[in-house]
Design brief:
With 59 residues, this protein is mainly α. Helices cover 53% and strands 7% of the residues.
Amino acid sequence: MLNNKNEVVCVLPTRNVSGGYMKKTYKELIEEISPDEIDELYCYLEQLTEKNVSKNVEW
């Protein structure tokens, strides 16, 4: 989905302070994420990748 600035709008549910849902662009979401959160996401992705690789090897 695109907004009026032709930016891709996030389709993930993001809540504002009052608890309602709001649309955000992926650019806004990326700007809000901290380096520590990025590191955590990479670690999680590596774990998932390792699990998938080991499952494929067992077959």
